[in-house]
């Protein structure tokens, strides 16, 4: 058990403020270009979103305006069209079950920034802006 914790800590990526800000700025630029008929929000990734607990809290205002009032499965569609389901907890305004799989499968790290574009009631296109693109 100790070994896996140490490995997890060794593999973690800690974004610099510059890289984090860059990814967020790029995500906001992308969001501004999206179809205004599709509500969207920008979500910068932190350690708690991509390691350990894998809980993704969503903006409360967005949730109360656009998402179901009860717990429900939400479909996340990445830029390649690959679909993943995650369980939305309405009273907690966040994604829980299967969010971990999405984060791991997409190699999300601290500082990456996501744009969630609602393309249907419970379906989101997820645009990923990598914090590492700051260094390229």
TrEMBL record:
Residues 41-132 form the TF-B3 domain. InterPro entries: B3_DNA-bd, DNA-bd_pseudobarrel_sf, REM16-like. CDD domains: B3_DNA (cd10017). It is found in: Nucleus. The keyword DNA-binding applies. GO terms for molecular function: DNA binding. Its main location: nucleus. It comes from the Eukaryota. Keywords: DNA-binding, Nucleus, Transcription, Transcription regulation. The keyword Transcription regulation applies. One of its GO terms (cellular component) is nucleus. PANTHER family: B3 DOMAIN-CONTAINING PROTEIN OS11G0197600-RELATED (PTHR31391), TF-B3 DOMAIN-CONTAINING PROTEIN (PTHR31391:SF163). This is TF-B3 domain-containing protein.
């Amino acid at each position: 058990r100790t070994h896996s914790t140490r490995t997890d800590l060794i593999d973690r990526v800690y974004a610099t403020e510059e890289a984090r800000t860059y990814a967020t700025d790029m995500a906001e630029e992308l969001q501004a270009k999206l179809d205004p008929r599709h509500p969207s929000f920008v979500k910068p990734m932190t350690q708690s979103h991509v390691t350990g607990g894998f809980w993704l809290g969503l903006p409360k205002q967005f949730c109360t305006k656009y998402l179901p009032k009860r717990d429900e499965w939400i479909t996340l569609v990445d830029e390649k069209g690959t679909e993943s389901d995650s369980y939305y907890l309405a009273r907690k305004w966040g994604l829980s079950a299967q969010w971990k799989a999405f984060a791991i499968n997409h190699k999300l790290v601290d500082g990456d920034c996501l744009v969630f574009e609602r393309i249907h009631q419970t379906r989101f296109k997820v645009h990923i802006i990598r914090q590492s693109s700051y260094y390229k």
